[in-house]
Design brief:
The structure holds 2 protein chains of 2 kinds.
Chain A: E1 2-8, H1 12-23, E2 29-32, H2 41-44, H3 76-89, E3 96-97, E4 102-108, E5 113-118, E6 122-130, E7 152-155, E8 169-173, H4 179-186, E9 192-196, E10 203-204, H5 213-221, H6 223-238, H7 241-245, H8 251-264, H9 268-274, E11 286-287, H10 291-295, E12 300-303, E13 307-310, E14 314-317, E15 322-324, E16 327-330, E17 345-346, H11 353-357, E18 375-377, H12 390-410, E19 415-418, H13 420-434, H14 438-441, H15 463-470, E20 478-481
Parallel strand pairs in A: 1-2, 1-6, 2-3, 4-17, 6-18, 7-16, 8-9, 8-16, 9-12, 10-11
Antiparallel strand pairs in A: 4-5, 5-6, 13-14, 14-15, 19-20
Chain B: H1 3-14, H2 19-22, H3 35-46, H4 56-67, E1 78-85, E2 90-97, E3 107-111, H5 125-135, E4 138-143, H6 154-168, E5 180-185, H7 187-198, E6 208-211, H8 222-226, H9 235-246, E7 272-279, H10 283-296, E8 300-309, H11 320-342
Parallel strand pairs in B: 3-4, 3-5, 5-6, 6-7, 7-8
Antiparallel strand pairs in B: 1-2, 2-4
Helix pairs in contact in B: 5-11, 6-7
The chains are: A alpha/beta, B alpha/beta.
Organism (chain A): Pseudovibrio japonicus
GO molecular function (chain A): monooxygenase activity
Protein name (chain A): Baeyer-Villiger monooxygenase
């Protein structure tokens, strides 16, 4: 099947790209989705208590504000419903081909198009927008003996509806964003829980309240109220960037987090285990009011000695202490470093994206990559945020991709590719800006840093500055050219 | 100066004014109606034909007199009238051949719109010419029998018989029987959808073009309420069409041959290009059918022209935005036919 543009993925990024293409009057695109529903990360993560760490009035599409959010920080179910409704509202459903799991992307230089191979079909497209998401593929650490374990094994991102934790002895591995959400949910029902913690996270209180019906109808009747609330949330969060950039400013936040910890945990030995030894912000800052109370309960034990091996019915820590368990829950996050999709995208020189990237992913404004013409990657290197809504960045990236596509069409050139010089300049700028930030100097190990120790995940500045930089392409950063040998193949709009 | 020249000049002038100054109605997604269409709606409201209270013959004459002066008469390679001689009757038809040296992309049997009760080869002449030119495909437009003189399933039977006839004579037109596609707008789109759904695999069309089709007489959808009055096609008109087409058999609304959306679809149905308009009472029906086909695994290319209304294909001679839209449809239709014939 042929289309001018193929979008891969139908989460926030894919849907925003599609909607913005329609705004430009471009209908010649298809969305490929590996599952049977839209929603991306919000469809996959159905563990108990799954929710967003950014207020919903901010964590939503700028073009599709929703007056009906029932709480400040929405849960997964409500966000998924929002995405479904949004896809339907903008007429995107007929554009989404479900159950199309993309296995390979190959640039065909001679034809000036991408060959997109899924498990069932082959598609050809002039442009590809990859909205894979960098938190799509669960990471399970390679612990010796895991395959011999006879109980149940689940990962937070592939929580099965059949899995029942009630009256079981469970081991929870990891203390990241998902764990602090599901542990308080399941703790009252489990018999015994051992939480294996590698690095304690910084946790700030979460000011999460239901939004009263009266407020919701006010939002529904006046969109400007909603816009004002969105702006307020945006600005209060945006100020925090300063702390990430200048770690010295983080003192106040650390004091707040310490106070929160001290108020919730009386036991000094446990408190010591839970106190981070690095600067706040170096790893993802988490929000919760229920995590500390949950892990101070009698049926919970926090283990800091690490997991050495797994036996058929027990988890053994590095001190050799055996804990018998019926189930293991991994809250170990995603393959955010070694991105799985990078292995099957083959560019101009026949090299895969992961070969080109190696240990240090590089890009131009996190969206396009030298050697991969007509390809735009959402949530690419240096586009993650530690402080505000990722949807805001995704929308800017979608606009970047579209402005590139339109620019090529306007100039009647079929191929657009970033310039090496521009990409180098951008990478140097990122490196310079990351120096001294809390991520590189905060004294922790996190998925924010790549295997070469560089920051290749986060945008080291304000989110509005990303938007200003990215939402339109700069002409001097891209090369336009014809398909080699065949000048008649010109993209027309 | 002809009416067409005047309207085209008007269109050229208003399209210079920025949309933000013009305002006007918005659809559910927040898109504005194309400015010239607002003028046309006003004019239409003033001399609206009350479909329920005129004789069908008079209605047909009226629609001809409204639509024929708008024609642009796009140039194609060759146009000739022919007669489809079936066993017990013969149908008029018109054959369009594209110009140019490139080999053509198969042949499309085209079924015109008009609520099953009006419309003919002349009212949809421009549509066929433009599609023929842009898609680089031959077209045979069929003058099927109309209700109420010939109620359901007469029109559908004609469409299917005509399609079979063309299939039998495919070689006379220089195409293979396996390269035949079907298309239609509005009521014709409905017939085309039913044809593609009900024909068995060996003599099924290779692709289907559904321009703002009616697909479901039962389910009420948001666009029925939003655009049910004062936008090109009214709910009243639809009731009249249904009464004439189904006559005493109102229960036939549930028949998948009337409401293809209620039928069973398999992934073996012909690949479809489904086109809807943003200001159309039938918008949601077309979109729902596109969605149904995609879910069944059919290869579907779906496009919605947000600023246009029902029947925009009949306005190509006077409205630039409609013309551009149909050109785009034609190009995508050509690509789909080529691709489907190849696989």
């Amino acid at each position: 099947m042929k289309a001018k543009i193929i979008i891969i993925g139908s989460g926030f990024g894919g849907l925003a790209t599609a909607k913005k293409l329609l705004d430009e009057g471009e209908t010649d695109f298809q969305i490929l989705e590996r599952a049977e529903d839209v929603g991306g990360v919000w469809r996959e993560n159905v563990y108990p208590g799954a929710g967003c760490d950014v207020q919903s009035h901010l964590y939503s599409f700028s073009y599709d504000l929703n007056p009906h959010w029932t709480r400040d920080y929405s849960r997964q179910g409500e966000i998924l419903e929002y995405l479904r409704a949004s896809a339907k509202k903008w007429g995107l459903l007929p554009k989404i081909r479900m159950k199309e799991d993309v296995r390979k992307l190959r640039w065909l230089e001679q034809d000036g198009e991408w060959e997109v191979t899924t498990a069932r079909n082959v598609y050809f497209a002039k442009f590809v927008v990859g909205a894979f998401g960098n938190l799509s593929d669960p990471a399970i650490p390679n612990i010796p003996g895991l395959d011999t374990f006879e109980g149940e094994v689940v990962h937070s991102a592939s929580w099965s509806q059949d899995f029942c934790h009630k009256e079981k002895r469970v081991a929870v591995i990891g203390t990241g964003a998902s764990v602090i959400q599901f542990v308080p949910e399941i703790q009252p029902d489990v018999k015994q829980m051992s939480v294996f913690q590698r690095t304690p996270p910084w946790i700030l209180p979460r000011d999460d309240n239901p939004i009263p019906q009266k407020q919701r109808s006010r939002y529904a009747s006046n969109i400007w109220r909603m816009q004002a609330e969105r702006l307020r949330l945006y600005l209060t969060r945006e100020v925090n960037v300063l702390g990430f950039l200048f770690p010295k400013l983080m003192g106040r936040a650390e004091r707040q987090a310490r106070k929160h910890l001290e108020a919730s945990v009386r036991d000094t030995a446990l408190r010591a285990k839970l106190t981070p030894d690095y600067r706040i912000g170096c790893k993802r800052v988490l929000l919760s009011n229920v995590w500390y109370p949950a892990i101070t309960q009698d049926n919970v034990e926090v283990v800091t000695t690490g997991v050495a091996s797994i036996e058929k019915n027990a988890v053994v820590d590095s001190n050799g202490h055996r804990r018998e368990v019926d189930a293991i829950i991994f809250g170990t996050g995603f393959k955010a470093k070694d991105l799985p999709f990078a292995k099957f995208i083959y560019g101009k020189d026949g090299q895969s994206l992961s070969e080109v990237w190696g240990d240090n992913p590089k890009s131009l404004v996190g969206t396009s990559i030298v050697g991969f013409p007509n390809f735009f990657l959402l949530h690419g290197p240096n586009t993650a945020l530690g402080h505000t809504s990722g949807v805001y960045i995704l929308e800017a990236q979608a606009e970047h991709a579209i402005s590139g596509i339109l620019y090529a069409a306007r100039k009647k050139k079929p191929i657009i590719e970033p310039r090496q010089k521009a990409q180098d300049r951008f990478t140097r700028w990122i490196k310079r800006r990351s120096k001294g930030t809390v991520w590189t100097s905060g004294g922790c190990e996190s998925w924010y840093l790549d295997n070469s120790g560089q920051n290749s995940s986060l945008w080291p500045s304000f989110s509005f500055s990303y938007r200003m930089r990215a939402s339109k392409i700069r002409r001097n950063e891209y090369d336009l050219r014809d398909v080699p040998g065949d000048v008649s193949l010109i993209v027309t709009r | 100066m002809s009416l067409r020249t005047i309207v085209r000049a008007l269109d050229a002038v208003i399209s210079l004014v920025p949309q933000s100054l013009l305002g006007g109605p918005k659809n559910l997604k927040g898109y504005h109606l194309s400015p010239l269409l607002r003028v046309i709606l006003k004019a239409q409201a003033r001399n609206k034909v009350d479909m329920g209270n005129v004789e069908p013959e008079q209605l047909r004459r009226e629609m001809r007199s409204q639509l024929l002066p708008l024609r642009a008469g796009y140039q194609v390679g060759q146009v000739r009238d022919l007669s489809i001689d079936l066993e017990d009757r013969s149908l008029k038809a018109r054959h369009y051949v594209p110009s140019g040296k490139e080999p053509t992309q198969g042949l499309t049997v085209y079924l015109h719109g008009g609520g099953y009760i009006f419309g003919d080869l002349d009212t949809h002449d421009d549509v066929c010419r433009l599609l023929c030119r842009e898609a680089n495909t031959q077209i045979i437009s069929v003058d099927y029998r109309l209700a109420p003189e010939h109620p359901f399933p007469a029109g559908l039977t004609d469409a299917i018989d005509a399609f079979r006839w063309v299939q039998k004579h495919a070689h006379d037109f220089g195409v293979k029987p396996s390269e035949l596609a079907v298309g239609g707008d509005s009521a014709g789109g409905n017939l085309a959808a039913v044809l593609a759904q009900t024909t068995s695999s060996e003599d099924a069309p290779v692709a289907q073009l559904l321009l703002y089709p009616g697909t479901d007489q039962i389910t009420k959808r948001p666009s029925h309420f939003a655009f049910g009055e004062g936008f090109f096609l009214d709910n009243n008109d639809r009731t009249v069409f249904r009464q004439h087409y189904l006559q005493s058999r109102q229960d036939a609304s549930q028949d998948p041959r009337v409401s293809p959306h209620l039928g069973e679809v398999s992934e073996h149905i012909a690949p479809a290009l489904i086109v809807t308009a943003g200001f159309d009472v039938l918008h949601d029906e077309g979109e729902a059918y596109a969605n149904k086909l995609v879910r069944a695994g059919v290869c579907v290319d779906y496009m919605c022209f947000e600023h246009l209304g029902h029947g925009f294909a009949n306005l190509v001679g006077i409205h630039r935005a409609s013309e551009k839209a149909l050109i785009e449809v034609g190009q995508r239709w050509g690509r789909l036919c080529k691709q489907s014939a190849a696989s």
